[in-house]
Every structure is written in structure tokens, then in C-alpha cells.
Amino acid sequence: MFVTDDLLIDVAALAVELAGAETAVPTVVDVRWRLSGQPGRVDYDAGHLPGAVFADLDAELCGVPGADGRHPLPDPENLQRALRAAGVRAGHPVVVYDGGDGPAAARAWWTLRWAGHHAVRVLDGGYPAWVAAGQPVTEEVPTPVPGDVTVRPGGLPVLAAGDAAALAAGDGVLLDVRAAARYLGETEPVDPVAGHVPGAVNLPTTEHIGADGRLLAADALRSRFAEAGVAPGVRVGAYCGSGVTAAHTVFALHRAGRTDAALYVGSWSHWLTDPDRPVATGSGT
Fold it and tell me: In this predicted model, what pLDDT tens digit does every residue of 10-28 receive, in sequence order?
């Protein structure tokens, strides 16, 4: 039976694990990231969880931007090299955290599970929650013992553009998790064309976060997804601008019990690479 306990870990529980026997201490990876502005490495250097290793979402956990989108799947060999350098070991637990908003950590979680490493959790509330709880931080950069993880792609389902189009056309539900204005075609701050995949349902990933800044409970998430048409037995996938915030929705779907949820990794940045792919605007299909 699927349980949600293997998705999130709270600050108190992580603090206990980090203080435990060395063989049981999880590998902690800092993946703080911004779409624009100063890189996450700057935040890491200013302070991070003791023992945490920094991983660059753009350069190490995703592929090279281009025809496959802004954050495509990573090359398996390059990803394996990066994960081993971070100390990721086969079967050993990993905890990832970001700046608290969730998408970067969710994309790191998704990438590790796609790569066949199931033992990965997200720190609930990220770095801000750790600091707010009075837990220690450091500027010391650790030198982890190289890991031995083997990347085996295919651990989580992905959507190609045709798959996404089919879901949106009636084979299931395709969730567009961007802000409504981008979905409607009213504005597009990143990509050259505004709008959405015809038939996609808009459900911004920000709606999965409660007033406390944490991911909603499983029951609340199931209700939100049901309102968007995600019913038992109905196939579901998600996309965003480039596959980062959509990973957060896939993470939320997992918490709601939908471990079959697929990610359109290339998302809108890939959809637009083919001028023959249709673009819808407004609230209709």
C-alpha cells in the first residue's frame, strides 16, 4: 500500500536523524534555486544545514536547455556523476530542501525517483522552516565520501508532447500548473507565446500550499484534484513552463495517492518548439 510518510520529513524528525548513528544519517542536498536573480549557490554559501551538499538544479539535475525545453531530462551519465559527487549511495536515504516554496526540491525529488532512487524525501518547509525552528546552520562546505548510486531512468512516468496532447484531448486530465494569467494567454514573462495546451485544465501549483506555507494534507489535495477532474482511474499528467513547478504538482499528486501521475518534462518551453502545435487562450479549450 502506498503511504505518504516517505515523501516529506519535518524539521524535528530530520534533526533526530542527523544526530543519529553515522550509518543512518541521510545524505542532505541543498537545491535552492531561482528562475532569475542570484543563483542558489549564493544562498548555500551564506548558510546551510550541517553536512548538506549543494546541487545545481540547472547544471546538474537537468539537461542542457534547447530543443527539449529549458529544464529537460538530464543525461543519465552526467546525473550519476553529480549524484555520486554529492555522496548519494544506492539504497541510502536522501533528503532534499529548497528555499521553502517547494518546486526546486520537488524537481530534485522527482529526478532522483525517475533515476531509480526511491529513498528520497523533501524537507517540509525547506530551509526557512529549519532556521525558524532554531536548528543550527553552517557555512562549512563538506567533502562527502563519493557515492555509488546507479542511475536507472524510468522510475517515474514522463509525457512526450503527443502524450500530453492526448491527455488534454480526453484520454485523461492534463494539468497546467502555471498562474492563471499565463494559462489564459494574458501574459507570458518567460516564453515567446502565451496560452496553453488545448484541453488542459488550469490548477496552479500554488493552490496546493496552505496558509502556513506547507503542502496541504493528502485529503485536502485529493479534493482539489477531484475538482479539476482527477478521478480514480483517470490518467493524469502535469506541465508548467519548463517542468519545475509541474514537478511540485506531481509531488502533491503522489501525496494524494496518485503515484501514476506523469510529468511533461519539457512543458510549455518544449511545446512551443514546434510551430504546428496548437495554442489555446482564454478559459475555453
Answer: 999 999 999 988 778 999 9
